[in-house]
Design the sequence.
């Protein structure tokens, strides 16, 4: 019903017809020059990256979504009949004004913006994705977190009838993730409702998923039904499955390896048959914007 202002969103035609480069992915699409050959973001920032936007067909066929299976091709194959309408979401816990509303109502509450962010999976690959959504802080402002709301917990849907992966104890279902309140309030943190100017495909987490661009991809819970403000650091499904591999923070950090995968470099999905590897950057390239959140923290200990 809304409000995707056409001026804010690049038509797919334009994505297709240009060589797509993003310079420094750190800032929002405010300074995007539609009609030129590239999207130029945040030139002022020092740690600039240049990487092509990943093609739609890779973004929508190479997925991690264990509710629909553990192979990269499982989500697109097994999620097409997944029912995302109607869909309600509750924002509650340590808040003064809890909310329960439909995703359609939520989409009409805030202007939908385009944000071109890199998604870096801890498995060692990345894609650059033109997301549609709105900053999470706008929603959190509406519910007025109390002083006990120190963390935010994200809970995905539990529906084993529709989600074959949930019939097996691969993870602690429903999928759970968490952020510290200041991370959740950071203007780069968004709730996503679409990509490439279109509705969010089921395999990418329709109707609502999180994106925290300086953290590994698994922090970005898909198919969210509940956002809960809590007093204590939540335990995510991944922390519970393997605490020495998955910490709470999970900031992209090329100097702290996962026990099974080096984090020093990443494979560019859709970057051609040679699948080039490029160096991974601290905080996925968003250091200028987010490193202050972690000052005086030992990021090896708090991985
Ligand atoms: N509910 C849910 N959310 C999830 C996952 C999942 O298995 N279930 N996988 C995560 C992982 S590991 C990654 S890398 C990203 C992948 O997002 P994409 O398929 O849109 O690229 O989703 C994350 N969100
Ligand atoms: Mo991932």
Sequence:
């Amino acid at each position: 019903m809304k409000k995707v202002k056409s001026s804010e969103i690049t038509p797919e035609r334009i994505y297709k017809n240009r060589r797509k480069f993003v310079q420094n992915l750190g800032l929002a699409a405010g300074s995007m020059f539609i009609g030129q050959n590239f999207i130029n973001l945040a030139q002022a920032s020092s740690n600039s990256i240049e990487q092509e936007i990943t093609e739609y067909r890779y973004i929508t066929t190479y997925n991690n979504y264990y509710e629909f299976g553990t192979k990269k091709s499982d989500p697109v194959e097994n999620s097409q009949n997944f029912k995302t309408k109607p869909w309600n979401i509750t924002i509650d816990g340590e808040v003064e004004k809890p909310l329960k509303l439909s995703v359609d109502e939520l989409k009409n509450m805030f202007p939908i913006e385009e944000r071109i962010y890199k998604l870096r999976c801890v498995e060692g690959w990345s894609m650059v994705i033109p997301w549609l959504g709105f900053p999470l802080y706008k929603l959190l402002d509406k519910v007025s977190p109390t002083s006990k709301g120190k963390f935010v917990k994200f809970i995905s849907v539990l529906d084993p009838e529709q989600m074959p992966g949930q019939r097996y104890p691969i993870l602690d279902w429903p999928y759970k993730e968490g952020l510290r309140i200041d991370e959740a309030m950071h203007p780069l943190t968004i709730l996503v409702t679409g990509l490439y100017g279109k509705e969010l495909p089921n395999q990418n987490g329709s109707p609502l998923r999180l994106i925290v661009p300086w953290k590994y991809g698994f922090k970005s819970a898909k198919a969210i039904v509940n956002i809960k403000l809590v007093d204590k650091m939540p335990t995510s499904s991944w922390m519970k499955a393997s605490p020495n591999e998955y910490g709470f923070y999970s900031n992209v950090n090329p100097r702290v390896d996962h026990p099974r995968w080096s984090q020093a470099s990443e494979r560019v999905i859709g970057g051609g048959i040679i699948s080039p590897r490029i160096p991974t950057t601290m905080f996925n390239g968003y250091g200028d914007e987010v490193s202050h959140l972690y000052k005086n923290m030992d990021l090896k200990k708090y991985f």
User: Anything to note?
Assistant: The domain at 6-294 is CATH 3.90.420.10 (Sulfite Oxidase; Chain A, domain 2). Confidence is low (pLDDT under 50) at residues 24-48.
